[in-house]
Amino acid sequence: MSEPFRFRFRVRYSECDAQKVVFNSRYGDYVDLAVLEFFRALGFSATLFNGPLDYQVVRLLLEWKGSARFDDILEASVATRRTGNTSFTMAVEFRLAGTEAVIASAEIVYVLIDSSTMSKANLPDNLRSAIERGLAGVVVDHSGTRGA
Q: For residue range 31-84, what is the model confidence (pLDDT) as tens digits?
């Protein structure tokens, strides 16, 4: 498993439920956002967001251990768990920024596709090696700014 990339963002009011905590379905959005920022930081924006390749979710498993509330700063750690011929599996852990306790975790499996045909595509070697290498110690905030 690669070293984690970390993405920090603030919980918005509209993401909370009647119990005043982050609504459970929002974590799927958060996972997708954190992985997108991982790929942006890797330098694959042109290839994966508006280019010849894209990726689609085929499996998402979420587990909750705690809660986040409006205005909390969350930190999502993203690491590669596995790569296959056409798919890759990412692990995402959520913490309140500055704490060690994991409040939620996810495993998400994506399949790489050809953007024009929407059919499975093999992971190119450069993308595979970048995903496997990861971004150890890189921290990005919601604006895309790198920091510590």
A: 999 999 999 999 998 888 888 999 999 999 999 999 999 999 999 999 999 999
Biggest distance spanned by C-alpha atoms of the chain: 46
Q: According to the model, what pLDDT value does residue 143 have?
A: 75
Using the predicted structure, report yes or no on whether residue 1 has a pLDDT greater than 60: no
Return d(Cα 115, Cα 119) in angstroms, integer: 8
Q: Which of 110, 126, 112, 128 is nearest to 35 (CA)?
A: 110
- Letter string b/e over residues 115-124, b meaning 16 or more CB atoms within 10 A of that residue's CB: eeeeeebebe
Residue with tokens 């459970």: 24
Q: Could you tell me where the beta strands, DSSP code E, fall in the chain?
A: 5-10, 53-64, 73-83, 87-96, 102-114, 139-141, 146-147
Domains of the chain (ranges; CATH) run 5-139 (3.10.129.10)
